[in-house]
Amino acid sequence: MSDDNQPVASKAKRGVKPSGKPTLKTIAQMTGFAVTTISRALNNAPELAQETRDRVQKIAAEIGYLPDRAALRLKTGRTNVIALVLEPDEQIYGFGSNIVSGLTETLRNTAYHVVITPLFRNVLPIEPVRHIVRNRMADGVIFSKAETFDERVRFLLDNDFPFISHGRTHWPEPHPYVDFDNEAYAYGAVKRLVEKGCRKISIVLPDSELTYTEHLKKGVARAAGEAGIAFEFAADINLSSPTDAIRNYVIKRSKRPDGPDGYVCASEVSALAVIGGLNDSGKTVGQDVHVVSKQSSMMFAQFQPGAETVSEDFVGAGRQLGALLLRRIAGEPLEDLHTLVQPSFDWKS
């Protein structure tokens, strides 16, 4: 008997992939299980033995099986897709890759897959979200940089579409989110700078539309007011400015007699620019001027001489975003689906 006339199961045993696009029926022929069992195994049905699930998923991976999203959507109304909307610079600065890492950890033993939807600079943030919802391209959406009255949140709430944002809004209705307590961070950072003897604090803020800009401003103002010191919000630049612009701003401010002697940094990239500007102006970080920054990667630790840091865990945020979104997709109420991560201050001395 020729190879082509042998049963598919015989070919599978010898590691030969069947020709044509693999289907559930293909895997059923290779394993001897019913098609319904294959489907349940691929969806990690808990009533099936782990050995069965592992065997089916291993063979599916070996033969390159991919579910037919269109057929799945027609049959169940689900796509088993989570759409993560990211701007290109979020990938460059490591935020995106860390979020994806945590998110995929959460989704690993589920039927869901992550699809990254890019948000380009010349496109309104609402557009990719509208496209996903109107075309039912995903079962849930994740996005970042939440604005105070974010129209993405309004649109998704109005359409009862599962989502979660990285960051909060001021809409009166509850909505799912994971956020870092930036007011607490800024408050703690200024208190630390006061301990170091600083009498004037500066911070480079995010875009004014973003909710966490308001949180940072409140934290700085509250701590500075309690300590009786001066503070300022850097003018004409923000976290989206080119690093050279931030660096040049710091150089110019350092040359003036009323220049700040303490800086709070809301991102690693801005911190490196601030430190570079201070060094270029002849200041020694940790002596003449002090810097406190968020830290979200080990790389920053190699280039922040003299600065003190507070960790913001984007991998952990990705895990939480995935877990809460799955709960929302399962039908849990909106008001129970949010997490506000508190900063941990572990100063050296």
UniProtKB/TrEMBL annotation:
Membrane-crossing segments per the record: none
Listed Pfam families: LacI, Peripla_BP_3
Record key words, sorted: DNA-binding, Transcription, Transcription regulation
Residue span(s) of domain HTH lacI-type: 22-76
Stretches the record annotates as Disordered: 1-21
PROSITE patterns the record matches: HTH_LACI_2 (PS50932)
Gene3D superfamilies: 3.40.50.2300, lambda repressor-like DNA-binding domains
GO MF, one example: DNA-binding transcription factor activity
Domain of life (superkingdom): Bacteria
Protein name, UniProt field: LacI family transcriptional regulator
The species this protein was found in: Devosia epidermidihirudinis
